[in-house]
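Protein record

Derive tokens from sequence
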Amino acid sequence: MVLRSILLSPASHITLSMGFSDIYSMAPNILGSDWRSGDMRLTRIRVTSKNSKLRLKVIMESFRLPKEITIEKPKEDGTTDDFRRMKKRFLDFKSDIYMRNAEHFNRLSENQSPKFMVIACADSRVCPSKILGFEPGEAFVVRNVANMVPPHENGPSETNAALEFAVNTLLVENILVVGHSRCGGIQALMSLQNEANSSSFIANWVRVGNPAKSKTRSIASHLDFDQQCKHCEKESINRSLLNLLSYPWIEEKLKQGKLSIHGGYYDFTDCSFEKWTLDYTKNRHSNTGISVKNREFWS
């Protein structure tokens, strides 16, 4: 922080927790005619910070009587502070990453050729780029509630629009569906009553996972609700992998060996990750369950 001189009486004391420029601009209104008095000088200034409160306390001692002024700056709603932090993070990114890799970002400004298409949950605790280390340009990502892929027959959605672009235009080599622990979307699915018509956008969306819910109920009905949800979180990923096969242009790329489909499960309670790959050859000749291969557990 750059400090400029504030002219106060010899015994003056200022405590502030706002930006110095704010104090400087407010000083004429606080101190009146004394502000520009040539025989006043700064004796002590201290900067403090407590939450988001902006507080200025000025104690002036004139030649005769002490003068105390307390000013409360209106409390902000927090948004400004949030965006200030966001601005700092962005500028840090620009200076520490963007400017140091200018050639790479210049190439990205002309074109993108990611190898991965990632379908992840919108949950704020699950950021694929953060937990899997994707750099800009490496993964084309779409996020929705409960990381679900609707079957082709369900019609257009933002998820299958992104899939079409990723597979047919970007020519990604891998599709990775990432689920996670304690998923609110799966909890909503498992709590859903059998109401055919609902005005809830959430209810109408998570019904995409009804087959996963049914299988969970048939296999894990003896478990408590939380354990059933955990089972369904993984079952829903597999259901999405099977739903991907309902898109003709995805299945064609699988036949040609130009595309692979994978599932992933991130458990943020212990920071572990499970990854597996759909065995397309076996699934082509099977109408029961799902066949996977190359299962790995990262912990």
The CA atoms of residues 11 and 61 lie 6 Å apart.
